[in-house]
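Table S7 (text form). Paired inputs.
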Amino acid sequence: MKRASTLFTEADHRRVTEAVARAEARSSAEIVPVIASSSGRYDRAEDMVGLWFGLITLCVGWWLLQGVEPSEWGVPRPRLGLLPVVGLVLGGWVLGVVLAHLSGSLRLLFTPRSEQKAEVERAARQAFFDRRIHHTDAGSGLLVYVSMLERMAVVLADAQVLEKLGQPKLDALCASLVSELKKGSYTDALCHTIEQAGAALAEALPAQAQNRNELTDALVVMD
């Protein structure tokens, strides 16, 4: 699984920081962009992958090794005994768990999309509070959150921004962000969405005479 920190150069970080600074200069809002490698552990998916690998290993082993051979008294007995069967299942399960642990994409194959969405939304809310975006003086924080593994995004706003822009506008910003991400550049997608948010916020929450910068303008990367 790719780590978010490996995708951004110093120049990319500067571009995002400058985009946030320009957007905030036009309004009294605080915009915080966050990109995460993933939003959930999906431990249950690892167990599911292990179970399937165990069953597949058992079937392959049974097909290759199973048969009967006569005992010394002429009574047929299975060539594949209980201990080899248990060993095949456990070995396959361990192999599956290890592969799933190393491959986020493999875990997602066994995780419903609804569960992925719930994990991304939970992680976005956690980042919203951990980064104190909810704690600005005017309640004007805006989170732009991207989760790489799940390929999902969330735009989450504090009370004042939500009241002025409305949830449909936030949903439109999120949809635009996802559309831009599909083009392949995380930096371009973030900058474009931040600019769009800045334009909307400039009308809804114009800059004040003392436009204090309460939160960092830098891109927050969560590996």
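Next pair, protein 2 of 2.
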Amino acid sequence: MRHWPLTELSITTPRLVLRFPSLADLDELGDRAAEGIHEEGFMPFFVPWSETDPAERARNAIQYQFRTWGAFTAADWSVEFAVVFEGQVVGVQGIMAKDFPVTREVKTGSWLGRRFHGRGIGTEMRRAVLHLAFAGLGARHAATEAFEDNHPSLAVTRKLGYQDDGIFMHSRKSEPVATRRFRMLREDWTESPGFEIHNLAPCLPLFGLDTP
């Protein structure tokens, strides 16, 4: 799409394709959300959108994507990539930033269909957006945050070499709960072989950049 080049942006890894989602991709994402993305009695998100019935979970997942599309500006952007594994959309990997040309800091967030857990997909898709951040966009920092009881997310973060960056208190379902924040500096990032970014150059002005 000439006026919205993000539709052609993608990242490929040895096993995955991360791409700006098409409407067909969103339909598949709705299926993954309806099937379930975490076990019962656990809430990894600030907004408990995944505790509704399957049909509403699917709609919530799709509507969130529409909201990110409509709210995208160079000063405050979020790209939510559909993650494709063996030809099937399996989850979402997001990367977002505010005032990126000044701060050079990105944040990440993701979810993965429950039946695809335990295969290293979560780690690989996070590596992919770190590659976009550092190799493609010229980021200096990458931050992430997770509830202290979200052990799978924390395991991915530690595996990738982030450093502790503080604890924050939040209200989750009217109960106090801590999140752990982590940060990776560009000099601590290690480029992974087989990771490639496609069609980034036409998108740079949307991120507020002339060059990385």
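DSSP finds five helices and nine strands in the chain.
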